Structures are given as structure tokens and as C-alpha cells.
Amino acid sequence: MLLRLMGRLLSAHKMTVLAIVVLQLVQTTANLLLPTLNAAIIDDGIVAGDTDVITFLGAWMAGIAAVQVVTAIAAGYLGAVVAMEIGRQLRSELFTKVQSMSSQEVGVFGAPSLVTRSTSDVAQIQNLAVLVFTMLIAAPAIFLGGIALAVHQDRALSFVVVAVVPILTIIMALIVRRLIPLYRAGQGLIDRVSRVLREQIIGAHVIRGFARQGHEIRRFDATNKDLTRNNLQSALLVAGMLPAIMLVVNVSSVAVVWLGGHRIEAGQMRVGALTALIAYILQILMAIMMAMYVFSAAPRANACAERIREVLDLEPAITDGVEPGPAVSGPPAARRPAGFGAAGFGAAPSVEAAGRTVPSGSRVEFRDVSFAHPGAEAPVLDGISFTAEPGTTTAIIGATGSGKTTLLNLLPRFLDATAGEIRIGGRTIRSMTLDALRGGIAVVPQRSFLFAGTIAENLRIGSPAATDEELWQVLQTAQAGEFVQALPAGLGSPVSQGGTNLSGGQRQRLCIARALLRAAPVFLFDDSFSALDYQTDARLREALQPLRRSVTVLIVAERVATVMDADLILVLEAGRIVAQGTHDQLLVSSRSYQEIAASQLVLEDRL
């Protein structure tokens, strides 16, 4: 898995990788030549008393050492650049893939796991890439070259290398074999720690409100201990590798010196050759150590590569259609006459809006639509059929869990219907590209989410080219102008991540204002008035009347007061439409609607 992933990523950097290999080979060659030159200086210069040889060979050693330093620095720099590019590319691919996932697919992995895979897992692969470029490429050349030159210096003592290499190989194999499952489990434990920590940070008020701090501390402590135990086991294995290698290296060095001393005394070996042989043996063992260090890091990187591939190999269930559809463009809502115009999906009759002609076909049709989660015993929605005409408001009401939000999420294909057909402007939504489909829909989600930045930056997500004047206009329409004007920096006021420095009602109104900037023929309001008081709700619905007359509006709501002016009200129970009609019609014909209205004291007020 790791090799396939690395091979694909490195294919875009072939020339740079080739340059790294060449530089590492030059560095290795220079490093291997130095002990031979040093042996010649000792035997032919120092022992023989020839200063010219010492000067000549010393100059060569200095030049070769300089080449080694320059090539090592260049190879290290290029290796770091390629490794960082690999990380950037992986993070970009993961981000793009996550953006293409449906909410169901994101839930399979979990948000904390996806964050860990995009950060920690990618960093492990980056680290391995650096080690490969700085160590693993040079290690085989040093190993083979060192053996050849050691044999050249003295064949008899070369058997020490032959005896040492299998021992070090066995040590490396045993350590790596134990590290692989530890690293794989460790990345999963990091996911668990991230998930628990994220839950405790986001749910801090709930934890404190129920005095569960002690329980949560113990829960986090248990997860933290599991991760610590795993990391400790892998760290001890890696830490034990160095002493084992050094023991073998030191014993080998002692053996070479002892045996070499006897051979020098017997006149079978020269002093310079012994120093060179010791240097080559140390280089050979150092090459093995470098390889072992890389191989000890490889299991963790391989486990991370498997986790990354799980995300990248996922085929999103929701994919683009083949028809691009008309471009949804033009001036934002605030610039349109009569309040709000819209771009259309189909080839319906056109209308004039702000000096341009736009199609008006935005009829929304649900034809026997059902939706069920994979493996679920019962569908969330079953046999949903209705038509929302352009210029009308369709409201969806029902008990909690009746499928209202799911129904709305099917329209922009945040979820895909498992049966039936959904059409906008006479075209099935599956035939459209996702950009074209979603570009023609303005959504106010159930959860009022704002991004870290300023109020203006959050609003311009709906229309990046909107002017300050247009922002103030939609803020006034959304009943948010007054509180934004009261802020010291106005539109430039900071918004924390998620908008946590604002109240629920303020966040909700800003999300409505953001949607109003879209040049869209279809508007979806998913329980978008629940945090508003009744007076603000009423003023907002009155301000939205121009919008509701010019586009197709679908509203999910809990309050009867919010939907009573809708042209069509759908009553959902257990995923089915049990009644539909206007408010007055449903008060007479639908017992379910009567119960909802009565529970909110609307029935008494209206009769």
C-alpha cells in the first residue's frame, strides 16, 4: 500500500528524485574514498616519511570532503522539498475527496478520524519520505561499496562483516515485525483521543450542566492511557534497537582491532589498511543502522498509507450528472427589482430581472421519493410526492424524527433518494452537475454554522462580489441589521469558529442573510426561524414576501405560526405525507395538523 501510494506521488517529481539519487551516489562515493586515501597517507606518507605524499593526498581528501558536504546539503534540500510537496498533494487530495463525500460517508469515518488522516497520517508519510531521500538511497551504496573496499583492504578480516550482517538483519526483522501492529493500532487510538477531546470541547456546557466533569476526565484518561501504553511499547522497541546495534558494532570493532593487530605483528597487514578496514566496517554498520531506522519508521507510515487510501479509494455515492445546466449567475439578490429575482434551471418562459433575462423555470417535483439509510430496517422517507410551483411557498411540518430535514437534504443532493425521482424545472436533479444544481439553490441549514472571520466574509460566501451596501440590505431584510450596526466594527466584526461569540438567533439571521445574497431560483429554509422570538419571526416573514413571490421556497418548521401563510403545507408522520393543503384546509381536514396547532395555541387563536 505504501509503495503504491509513494510511487504515484513521486511520479510527478521524477527529475528531482533522479537528481537526489545522483547527489546521494556522489556523496556516498566521496565518503567511501576517504578511508582509502587516509590509509595511503598513513602507509605511504607518515610511515614512509614522505611529506609530498601527505600534502598531495591531504589536498585530495579536502576536495573530496568538500564535494561530500555540498552534495549532502543539496540532496537533503531537494529531499525535503519533494517530501513537503508530497504532503501538500496528499492533504489537497484528502480535502477534495472529503468535500465530495455525502454526510453519510463522512459519518462512516468520523470527523476526528478524517482530520487525523489529513494531518498526522500525512505527516508520518512526509517524515518517511525525508528518511528515504536522506538515508535509504545512500545506505545500499555505502553497504555494498564498503564491503567491496573492505575486502580490497584485507580479505581475511572481511569475514567479520559476513558474520555481523545476518545478526543485524535478524534484529531489524524482529523489531519491525513487532512495530507494524503497534503502529496500526496507535493511529486508531489517536482517532479515539481526537474524538473524545472534540466531544468534550464542543459539549463542555452539557458536561458542566450535568456535573459530569469527573466522568469525562476518567473517560479521557482511559483513552489517553491506551495511547500512552501503545506509544511506550513502540518507543521502547525503537529505543532498544540502538543499543543492540551499538553492541554489535563495538564487538565487531574490537574483533577487527584484535585480529588486525596480530596480522600487523605478523607482517601480513599494514597499519593504514587496518584503519581503513575499521572505517569501512563502521560505515557498513552505519548503513545498516540507517536502513533499520528507515524500516522502523516504515510500519507506521504504511499504516497511515492504508488509512489514507481508505479515504482516497472511496467512490462517492453522489456524483455529477452529465448535463451542466444553465450558469446560475448575475447580480446578488439585493440588486434585483422587487426585492429578489432568480436564475432558473429549465427552459421555462423568461422574465426580465435587473436588466438581464433569466429563465423562470424552478418548479420542484417529488415523484414517489423514498430514502433509507444503508442497512436500516425502515425507510426515513417513503412515497413522497408533491409539486412546489414557482412563486409559491411549500412548508413541511411534523413531529421530531418525521423526516423533514432529510426531505430537504434530498433536493441539493446532500443525500440521494433511494427510490423515486426529483425534478427541478422539469429536469431530474441526477442529470445535472452538482455545481449547477447547488448553484441554483440557496440553503439556510438547520444548524446555523458560521466560519471564523468577519461578518462580511461570512455573508460574502453567498456572493463574493457583493458590495457593503448589498450586505446591509440583506441584513436589514434578515432582521440582523440592527445588531450588526451596534457592533463596534460593524461588518468587520470578528466571528469565532462556528459563530460561538454570537447568540443562536443572531447566527440564524446571519445565515438567512447569507442565503439571500444568492441568485437562486429555489430557497430552502431548514427550521431556520426556531431561534427567533415571535415578533422577529413575524417581521422576517413579512420582509421575505418579495422573495416568496419570485422564487420557489421550501420551509421546514416546527411552529405553525411560521408556516400558516404558506401556499402548501405538507404534514409528515414517520416519513410519509399524511396530509397536505393550506393552513385553513388542514385545520378542518387533518387531525395531525389540528393536534400540532392546538399544542401551540394557534387553533384557539384562529377559530
TrEMBL record:
PROSITE patterns: ABC_TM1F, ABC_TRANSPORTER_1, ABC_TRANSPORTER_2. The chain crosses the membrane at residues 55-83, 128-150, 156-176, 235-259, 271-295. GO terms for molecular function: ABC-type oligopeptide transporter activity; ATP binding; ATP hydrolysis activity. Residues 18-300 form the ABC transmembrane type-1 domain. SMART domains: AAA (SM00382). GO terms for cellular component: plasma membrane. It is a multi-pass membrane protein. InterPro entries: AAA+_ATPase, ABC1_TM_dom, ABC1_TM_sf, ABC_transporter-like_ATP-bd, ABC_transporter-like_CS, P-loop_NTPase, Type_1_exporter. It is found in: Cell membrane. Keywords: ATP-binding, Cell membrane, Membrane, Nucleotide-binding, Transmembrane, Transmembrane helix, Transport. Residues 364-599 form the ABC transporter domain. The keyword Nucleus does not apply. Pfam families: ABC_membrane, ABC_tran. This is ABC transporter ATP-binding protein. The lineage of its organism: Bacteria, Bacillati, Actinomycetota, Actinomycetes, Micrococcales.
